[in-house]
Amino acid sequence: SAVPMVLSPITFNNYGGSCDYQYPGWVNYVTDQKHRKRPDARAYQRYLEMKSFQDSDSRPFIHLVDGGVSDNIGVRAVLETLEQLRISAEFRGEIGFGKINKVILMVVNAHSSPDTKWDQNEDPPGFFSQLLQSTGVPIDRYSFETIETMKDRAEIMKWRRELQVANKRLAGVSKAEAEASVSKLDMKVVDISFDAINDPSERDYFMNLPTSFFLPSEDIDSLREIAGILLRQSEQYQLIIDSFNDEIPPGNK
Questions:
Q1: CA 52, CA 168: separation in Å to the nearest integer?
Q2: Residue 163 — very low, low, confident or very high, per pLDDT cuts 50/70/90?
Q3: Distance CA 229, CA 233 (A)
Q4: Most buried among 37, 48, 104, 190, using CB within 10 Å?
């Protein structure tokens, strides 16, 4: 929780370039101009960041701050992995792509939105209030866009597979053969956040809970309870449970 301007960064000695580190297979594709193609921009950017850490002569120390400033919900790494899977056959082989047929990404986004009452006063908010908002609003928007991008990717993967099966059917292949010949990877994204709370007063209660190293026991109990409620009422989560139930033989349920 090394929050900038609140807590000090965490400092590490950097020994990059001295341990015979081997780049993963997908790097060969994003660094070779003959293989580079869309979408690989995020993967290539990840390679550049990895490469910079290898120069320990110029960067003998690494200072880390709270990850919220770059990816508050930790989903960007999944998005980058999907790109790496797309561009690198070697990487697909390393992780066993083709054997995996179901991926479930559960995003627990405990963002809050405390009441400010600023719009009820003629005087604008003070310096520190504006400073907090100038960091909080971009983080929340970035998190929202990342989650929606993941949902879009899941739909695109489904649509692409359906198109591949349809093309094989048009070529005269039977439905069963077409389905079997196309890699089936079903990805579901479950988004759990306070925004899904139906009761306005209850939603306001959770949205106004502070980001703190200490919360009263009753608040902690309430958070645990609402997490289970939101998960169980999630339509996407119920679809996942139903899909598992459909795969279980009736005698084993």
A1: 45
A2: confident
A3: 6
A4: 190
